[in-house]
Write a structure and sequence with these properties.
Blueprint lengths: L1 E9 L3 H8 L4 E2 L4 E12 L4 H4 L2 E7 L2 E7 L8 E10 L1 H13 L2 E18 L2 E10 L3 E10 L5 H15 L9 H8 L4
Antiparallel strand pairs: 1-6, 1-9, 2-7, 3-4, 3-7, 4-5, 5-6, 7-8, 8-9
Length: 187
């Protein structure tokens, strides 16, 4: 799958929540709040940050997901190939142990509270994520998942139109991990 994402820093979520409640959107799901803990890994020789790739284990309640994110393909929008595999808590410990055994190390854990609202916008399913990221701040992420490269350009245009509808400006492509490491003076 190809993840197309626009991210914006905000001071609060009031405007977005009001827009979503206005009736102008086909809201496909209720707000689904969850706490996410994302542990990122790196390799001292492969240096994932130089390749613009990411490897993480996400925990949401008792669910775990291993995610590989390929390099970003765009300067203004996060467009990345993404592969995910779900597994259980016992396997999460084994996975971390395997990574460390292969010369990797845990970089940091990014913890956030995420409210996810699924909407239909211009013929596409869009996830609107309201993220409160520990030590970093508040963000709105707009995301469409494309099946193939042919859908990417149209998805990007739809996200830009949705951001305009919400009054969002100043899209950023910096990851939460980079922001956290910068806030801690480690980047």
């Amino acid at each position: 799958m190809i993840e197309i994402e626009k991210k914006y820093r905000v001071t609060n979520f009031d405007t977005i929540r009001s827009e979503l409640a206005s009736g102008d959107f086909d809201v496909m799901s209720d707000v689904k709040p969850e706490f996410q803990s994302d542990e990122y890994f790196n390799h001292r020789q492969l240096r994932f940050e130089l390749q613009d790739i990411a490897l993480r284990i996400r925990q949401v309640d008792d669910k775990f997901i291993l995610t590989f994110k390929g390099p970003n393909q765009d300067a203004t929008t996060k467009i990345r190939h993404e592969v995910e595999v779900a597994f259980n808590e016992e396997d999460a410990g084994k996975m971390s142990e395997m990574f460390i055994g292969m010369g990797m190390h845990a970089v940091a854990k990014v913890c956030k509270t995420r409210d996810t609202i699924s909407i239909r916008w211009q013929g596409s399913n869009v996830e609107v994520c309201l993220d409160s990221v520990d030590e970093v701040g508040h963000f709105v992420e707009l995301e469409i998942v494309a099946e193939n490269e042919d859908e990417v350009s149209a998805a990007k245009e739809k996200l830009e139109a949705l951001a305009n509808k919400f009054g969002l400006e100043g899209s950023i492509t910096t990851s939460y991990l980079e922001m956290l490491l910068e806030a801690r003076g480690q980047l």
